[in-house]
Amino acid sequence: MKKMSTFSILLMALFFIGCAGTGQYNTQRGAAIGAGLGAIAGQAIGQNTEATLIGTGVGTLLGTIIGNAQDQRAVQQSMSHPSYSQAPQEAPVRYVAPTPQERTDPPGKWVTVPGHWVGNRWIPEHQEWRPINPY
Question: Are 72 and 85 in contact (CB under 8 A)?
Answer without folding.
Answer: no
